[in-house]
Structures are given as structure tokens and as C-alpha cells.
């Protein structure tokens, strides 16, 4: 289309705000101009925080993707993992990636996709802050660390022998569609590949916590699966999900999060009201406020440089925002001299609210 994009990562890989941006030119060698709608990909909240240090590619159907890295930062400040988000080039030249529910299950397209939001599977996170019990625990690395949506905290078993278990109580029967087991690199003592570096385990489910049925398991060939994801062949109605250990190549069995996706079968939250946004004296920042929604697990602040194109998302958890009638969060990713519009949506284990009215950032 006669446009060339010079991509970069900023502000730094040791931050949750690590993002991908771009300069644009009509010539392959420039000069290139900073794009006013930067960043291209930005995800400061959620489980997989950060998107920078990546590149862009297309699939066989012409759908675009922007790769990057999310921040782990436990063993080393710049410790990261690879992430991929669907992307789009608009007719006016804007290039953007969708990070809305960016680390929740997404559909793999089999044809050209018109709306990036259509790739969200609609399966809600059922595991946030749910109670966990473990067969054993090493020191302070308690089981409840494996449901906090924070990759820098984790449960460590007292041993890595086969048969160690980690059991989650969803609190009530729910429809489960997928499960992800995210292992942590805790004093693993491994610095190169080896024949014994592979992951084996079984997942089980139960309605009453006593009678257990198979849910999923790793299959041959043996391989390392640090973020093992299982999409179930059919939805399963259950309350308890249990990890049963087989093998890891690391020195310890450590799990950062046991993530369960599906639907709790209730009502989605109501639409947030009283949304406002005011820029700070530093025009790169703005404070967004909205009314608290009863029963919401979290919120997505969505914003962009056009009211009909809210390309950026900041995912937030309700319990980290306080209990007031009015909630607020500062955005720190605006460009000076560029107008912005913002809206807020709420979500829980049963769905996502309608988007609030879009308001201009003042």
C-alpha cells in the first residue's frame, strides 16, 4: 500500500509497560515519522504483561499478527516469554494489535477476519483467587500463589515425585472449556536442553471433590510444556480441577498459575457508568474514573485516538482497585498533542458487559 513501518520496542523489557511502536514512511529507506497512534501493541495488565521486542507477520489467510514478549522478571529483571497478538492495518495507515483479553483463549482463524475482537473465544477466567490445596509445599511457596494471575509468584512442591497434586475449588459447578498450567522457573538448575527436559502430567475433575474423572493429559511425543494449554473436546460441568504430577526436568515442581476458562452460568455485569478522563499536567498521562459495578471481577479500560477505534486496552482486577463507589486508574501511554477517547467495560466469570459510552479525554 505504499507504506513502510519501522518497528521498535520501548520503554524497556524489565517493565510491564514494554510495548511495540512504529515509525512510518512512504519510502523503504525513510525518512520515517513517529506514528501518532503509538503504541502498536501495549498490555500493562493481565497475566502476560508486556508486548515489546517483537515483529509482524501474516498467516495464509492474510490475517496479521504482532509478536512480542511478556514480562516474567523473577530470576532476572529482563526475563520474558513470547506472546502473539492479532493485528490489523487500517485503510488510513494505522497499525494496531489487539491485546483485549490477550492471554485468554483465542480462536485460530480459518479465513480472513474483519474484526479482531471476533477472535476472542468468549471463555471467561474461572480461577482468579480461587482456593487451592497441595499435596506438599516447599517453604513459603504456598498453593494459593497459583491462582493470583501473577507469573512472579508460584507454588513449589516439597518434591517433584510423580503423584504430587494441586487442587482448585471453583466454588460452585461451572462449565469448563480449557485449562492452562503455567510452570515457573524456580532454581531449576538447567541451562541447556537434555533428554529429561520434558513435561508430563494429568488433569482431573470432580463435582464433589471425592470422585474424580480424567479431564486431560499430556500425550507423546515427550516435550517441554512450560505453558501447557488444553482446549477440551467438549465442555465439562465441574467444580474441582486437580493437577496430578508426572515429570518435569527442572529441580523443582513449581506452578505459577493453574488457569481455568469457561463460564459460571450467571449474568454478565452491568455497564460501567460515570466514565470520565482528564489529562495530567504531563499530557502523556490521564486519570480515568468510572462507577464500580457490583459482581465485576475486573475491568478493561479501552481507548484510542478515534471514538470509533479504541485500539488500546488496560485490563484491571476489581480487588486491586479498592472498594469505593468510584474507581480510577492512570493511563501512561498517551502522545502529546493527540486527542483521545476512552470507554470502560466490566467482566466476571459469566461474561462481559456492554461497553460504556465513549467519552473524550479532557
UniProtKB/TrEMBL annotation:
Stored PROSITE patterns: FA58C_3, FN3
Signal peptide: none
Domain Fibronectin type-III per the UniProt entry, residue ranges: 271-362
Pfam families: F5_F8_type_C
Domain (F5/8 type C) ranges: 109-263
Family annotation (InterPro entries): FA58C, FN3_dom, FN3_sf, Galactose-bd-like_sf, Glyco_hydro_beta-prop_sf, Ig-like_fold
Protein name: GH43_28 / CBM32
Entry superkingdom: Bacteria
Amino acid at each position: 500500500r505504499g507504506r513502510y513501518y519501522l518497528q521498535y520496542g520501548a520503554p524497556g523489557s524489565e517493565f510491564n509497560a514494554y510495548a511495540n511502536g512504529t515509525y512510518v514512511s512512504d519510502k523503504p529507506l525513510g525518512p520515517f515519522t513517529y506514528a501518532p497512534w503509538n503504541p502498536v501493541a501495549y498490555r500493562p495488565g493481565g497475566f502476560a504483561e508486556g508486548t515489546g521486542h517483537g515483529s509482524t507477520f501474516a498467516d495464509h489467510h492474510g490475517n496479521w499478527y504482532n509478536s512480542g514478549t511478556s514480562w516474567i522478571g523473577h530470576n532476572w529483571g529482563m526475563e520474558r516469554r513470547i506472546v502473539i497478538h492479532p493485528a490489523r492495518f487500517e485503510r488510513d495507515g494505522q497499525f494496531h494489535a489487539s491485546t483485549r483479553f490477550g492471554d485468554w483463549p483465542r480462536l485460530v482463524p480459518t479465513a480472513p477476519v474483519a474484526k479482531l475482537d471476533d477472535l476472542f473465544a468468549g471463555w471467561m477466567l474461572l480461577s482468579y483467587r480461587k482456593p487451592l490445596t497441595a499435596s506438599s509445599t516447599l517453604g513459603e511457596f504456598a498453593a494459593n500463589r497459583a491462582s493470583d494471575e501473577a507469573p512472579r509468584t508460584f507454588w513449589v512442591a516439597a518434591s517433584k515425585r510423580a503423584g504430587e497434586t494441586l487442587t482448585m475449588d471453583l466454588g460452585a459447578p461451572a462449565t469448563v472449556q480449557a485449562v492452562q498450567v503455567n510452570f515457573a522457573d524456580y532454581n531449576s538448575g538447567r541451562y541447556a536442553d537434555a533428554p529429561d527436559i520434558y513435561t508430563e502430567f494429568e488433569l482431573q475433575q470432580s463435582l464433589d471433590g471425592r470422585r474424580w474423572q480424567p479431564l486431560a493429559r499430556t500425550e507423546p511425543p515427550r516435550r517441554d510444556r512450560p505453558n501447557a494449554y488444553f482446549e477440551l473436546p467438549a465442555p465439562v460441568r465441574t467444580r474441582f480441577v486437580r493437577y496430578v504430577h508426572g515429570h518435569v526436568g527442572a529441580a523443582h515442581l513449581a506452578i505459577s498459575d493453574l488457569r481455568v476458562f469457561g463460564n459460571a452460568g450467571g449474568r454478565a455485569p452491568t455497564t460501567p457508568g460515570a466514565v470520565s478522563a482528564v489529562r495530567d499536567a504531563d499530557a502523556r498521562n490521564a486519570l480515568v474514573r468510572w462507577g464500580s459495578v457490583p459482581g465485576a471481577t475486573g475491568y478493561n479500560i479501552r481507548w484510542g485516538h478515534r471514538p470509533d477505534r479504541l485500539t488500546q486496552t488496560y485490563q484491571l482486577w476489581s480487588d486491586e482497585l479498592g472498594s469505593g463507589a468510584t474507581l480510577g486508574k492512570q493511563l501512561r501511554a498517551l502522545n502529546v498533542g493527540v486527542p483521545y477517547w476512552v470507554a470502560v467495560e466490566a467482566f466476571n466469570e459469566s461474561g462481559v458487559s456492554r461497553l460504556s459510552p465513549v467519552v473524550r479525554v479532557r
